[in-house]
Design a protein that fits this description.
Layout: H1 4-12, H2 14-63, E1 64-69, E2 74-79, H3 86-95, E3 99-102, E4 108-111, H4 117-120, H5 123-126, H6 130-143, E5 150-155, E6 161-170, E7 177-185, H7 187-235, H8 253-302, H9 307-338, E8 347-350, H10 351-361, H11 363-369, E9 372-376, E10 382-385, H12 387-403, E11 410-417, E12 421-428, H13 464-474, E13 478-484, E14 488-496
Parallel strand pairs: 9-11
Antiparallel strand pairs: 1-2, 3-4, 3-7, 5-6, 6-7, 8-10, 11-12, 12-14, 13-14
Helix pairs in contact: 2-7, 8-9, 10-12, 12-13
């Protein structure tokens, strides 16, 4: 027994709706074809009967003569044909089967010889009454045109239908007009139409049932790939995001759906991997200072005996707490940036002036590190930038350059204006980065491994270049890195900028 809920789900299903659409379309098509075909069949049948009547009418005018009987001074209708000719005899017999001839006032002067008098003289049976005959005669005489031709369908008292062709025939010797009507029974045509209608009415339900079965089957085949996608989506979890659906190679809408689904799973897999990596990195980075704080406090609790020992333990713990705070602040800022909560405040500024101020601020740290810091800047280079974020970007790049450049090395900052874009280069001749590490330097918490030593606090959090990459991307720019171990590293940043009047631009120096 089908429950109400199951029936509701069935009727709301896409397969049911597609099948219902097929059935409705098929039914409308069958009904339309039936109506048009029946109308065409009826039209052809009527035209054939009319053609037969026209042929009979022409034959009647060849054999019929309406003449004046001079003795009685009355007109009479006579049929003149060769009685020994079987063809003429047959034609005249057919003509005289159903006909009537009246005078201009509607009085019958001759009718079908094989009809009962009470039937043949009934004007409704021949398709006209006296008033109709009088009006037809007067119209013909008044307009001086050819006698009017009229077709009417009539049913006699026996229920037999006739198609009646009527018109005027003039008596010999320019005599008065007479009304003549010829008829052909059309009940056979009606039986054909009725049989066709009944047959089609019987065929339509059978065709609809077959159409519904075929539509249900076709809809099931058409929706099978969609069902496969749904089943695959149910099997997907965080542990098997590598699952992909095979393409059908049909290059149709379903292939496009499968391709879109696979790309969505690919993005989800990337996001899950980033989340796992982020969780692992955060756990590792937070565990280190927390462990150090715990160790400092335990040492102070169990071994410190003097005030100086307590003060030293507290000082070391505060340093680790400060490092922990830096990690939390950096993570919060990076999270805000990547989720769109940190909105750039772009204004049109002179990038050369901004970079010049940052370079001046780093001169003292550069002197302490024994590194020669220089800047190659044009007089003006305007661009639409967020000053705070650009300063953070340059600060991170210069901090890394000074940190990994040995005593006596060089760090150089260059800017070049190129019409609709500007290039900023930060280059050093420090220890460089090995090729296998370059693809990962913009990842969170990634720090280039050092040979023979563990990462120390001076190596930073591994978040600076992540900020640099986000800042460049937020400005719709690009960043490229080239590095050679033992020779140095070069960061080239390209940012878009609005057009600047040519008189405000100095010749752009090369950035090397």
């Amino acid at each position: 027994m089908i429950r109400k809920g199951d029936l509701r789900r069935l009727t709301r299903g896409l397969r049911f709706r597609l099948t219902a659409s097929y059935a409705l379309f098929f039914a409308l098509l069958l009904i339309t074809v039936a109506v048009l075909f029946r109308q065409r069949l009826e039209s052809v049948q009527r035209q054939e009967v009319q053609d037969t009547l026209e042929s009979n009418w022409r034959a009647m005018k060849g054999y019929l003569r309406i003449e004046l009987n001079r003795e009685s001074n009355k007109y009479f209708a006579g049929w003149y044909f060769d009685a020994e000719d079987p063809d003429e005899s047959r034609i005249v017999a057919e003509l005289k089967n159903i006909y009537v001839i009246t005078d201009a006032d509607g009085n019958v002067i001759q009718n079908a010889e094989n009809q009962q008098p009470e039937i043949s003289t009934t004007y409704d049976d021949i398709g006209a009454d006296k008033q109709f005959i009088r009006d037809s005669v007067r119209a013909a005489l008044g307009s001086k045109k050819a006698p009017p031709t009229a077709y009417r369908t009539r049913t006699d008292s026996s229920g037999v239908q006739y198609l009646i062709r009527s018109g005027l025939v003039y008596a010999e010797g320019h005599g008065p007009p007479f009304y003549v009507a010829l008829g052909i029974p059309i009940q056979q045509n009606e039986r054909v139409l009725r049989a066709f209608t009944l047959a089609y009415i019987a065929i339509i339900p059978t065709a609809l049932i077959l159409g519904c079965v075929l539509g249900w089957y076709m809809a099931g085949n058409a929706l099978k790939p969609v069902k496969d996608v749904a089943q695959a989506a149910q099997r997907i979890s965080g542990s098997n995001l590598s699952l992909r659906l095979p393409m059908r190679q049909a290059d149709d809408e379903l292939d496009y759906l499968i391709l879109t689904f696979n790309r969505m799973i690919e993005r989800l897999e990337t996001s899950f991997q980033q989340m796992k990596q982020f969780s692992a990195d955060v756990s590792h980075e937070l565990r280190t200072p927390i462990t150090a704080i715990r160790g400092q406090l335990e040492v102070a609790l169990f071994t410190a005996k003097t005030t100086e020992q307590y003060r030293e333990a507290m000082f070391n713990a505060l340093q680790d707490i400060d490092r922990l705070s830096q990690i939390v602040r950096a993570l919060l800022l990076l999270s805000q940036a990547e989720t769109g909560q940190l909105v750039l405040q772009k204004v049109r500024l002179d990038l050369s002036e901004v970079i010049r101020e940052i370079v001046d601020q780093f001169q003292i740290p550069a002197e302490e590190a024994g590194v020669h810091l220089t800047a190659d800047l044009p007089n003006e280079c305007f661009a639409a930038i967020d000053r705070v974020q650009i300063e953070r970007m340059l600060t991170n790049l210069l901090s890394n350059a000074l940190k990994f450049t040995p005593h006596g090395g060089n760090v150089r900052v260059g800017v070049r204006c190129l019409g609709e874009r500007v290039e900023v280069a930060v280059q050093d001749n420090g220890r460089g980065i090995a090729p296998e590490y370059l693809p990962h330097i913009f990842d969170r918490f990634y720090r280039v491994p050092t040979t023979g030593t563990a990462p120390g606090p001076d190596q930073g959090l591994g978040l600076g270049l992540s900020f640099v990459a986000w800042i460049v991307k937020a400005h719709n720019g690009t960043i490229d890195v080239t590095s050679t171990p033992g020779q140095g590293t070069r960061f080239l940043i390209t940012l878009p900028c609005g057009p600047v009047p040519s008189e405000k631009l100095d010749p752009a120096p090369a950035v090397t």
